[in-house]
Structures are given as C-alpha cells and as structure tokens.
Design a protein that fits this description.
This protein is α+β, with helices and mostly antiparallel strands. It is built from 6 helices and 6 strands. It starts with a helix and ends with a helix.
C-alpha cells in the first residue's frame, strides 16, 4: 500500500513538473543552437541559454500556455559591461530580466527594449525592423539584438533573427 502511494505521489510530481516547465528542453535546445550558429565569438548564446534555464527553474514563465501560445524573446549583450538583457512576453504578460556576469539573474520593471521595437517584433515584421535598423541604428558599436518567436501548438515552431540595436524615441514617446 505504501509503495503504491509513493508511486502515485511520484507520478503526480512528474506530471506537474512537466506541466510547469514553461519552455521545454527541446525548445531551449533549438533556440540555443540557432543563436550559437550566429558567429558567436563572445559566447553570448551560452549566457542567454543559462538565463532562460534559470527563468524556467525559478518558475518565472508560468504565464506561457503550453498548449497554444506565441512567445517572443528579445535578448542582447552589452560588451562593455558584460551584462545580458532580456525580455520575454506573450499577449498576456511581459517579463524583463538582467543577467550579470557571475550568474546573478535579476528581474526588472524597466524595459531595456523600446516599445516600438517590441511592437515590430510582436508583429514579426522583419522588413520594418531592417528598415529601422538602417535608419536608426546607433552609429558607434550598436548591440546585436537576438529576436526569437516561439509558436506553441501541436508542433512548436521557432523563428530567429538578429538585428542591430535601434531606437526611435519620437515614436516611443508618442505611444
């Protein structure tokens, strides 16, 4: 009897643990491989991957619907400070975080990425992003921005591209 109870409790934890894994391991692995393939001289793919795994461990992504959802990620690395910045969101919620050199993950209320940039990524309008990138890129060493879209459904689809940092303060201020 006690053996069955232990098996039942173990099975329950196995099921609830799987349900609470907001970004499953195969998804995290695909994102990592896509970022790693992008001339990753500085090793930022490792840093971004670690931060995403920490978000999962901390159960910070419970707002993601595992059956059907579209999730967006923006990530960047500041070479001067060694700090990684990230934002992950869906239609219901957004989570901003900073990953410091040395392994400290911190949640932020402030947005590192401009609203206009997030809106273009949410629309997955790569042409408009490329246009803004040419028009409004920082002239001196802009950061690379890593954009990822995860479409969760019967089969998960992951899209990824990078672009140079840009900001349009006039558009952001008017919204």
């Amino acid at each position: 009897m006690i053996y069955r109870l232990i098996i039942l409790i173990g099975f329950f934890f196995l099921l609830t643990g799987k349900a609470n894994a907001q970004l499953d391991k195969p998804t995290l692995k695909v994102i990592y491989k896509q970022q790693k393939n992008k001339n990753d001289i500085l090793g930022v793919a490792n840093r971004f991957d670690f931060a995403r795994q920490e978000l999962n461990k901390l159960d910070s992504l419970s707002f993601i619907n595992q059956k059907m959802d579209t999730v967006y990620l923006l990530e960047t690395y500041d070479m001067e400070t060694g700090i990684s910045y990230g934002s992950i969101w869906n239609k219901c919620k957004r989570l901003n975080y900073t990953y410091y050199h040395g392994g400290v993950l911190e949640f932020k209320a402030d947005d590192f990425f401009a609203r206009y940039m997030r809106a273009l990524v949410s629309a997955w309008d790569i042409d408009a992003i490329r246009k803004e990138e040419k028009r409004g890129s920082k002239p001196i060493s802009p950061n690379d921005i890593y954009a990822t879209r995860i479409i969760i459904g019967k089969k998960t689809k992951i899209d990824f591209f990078t672009f140079n940092e840009f900001s349009d303060l006039w558009i952001d201020a008017s919204e």
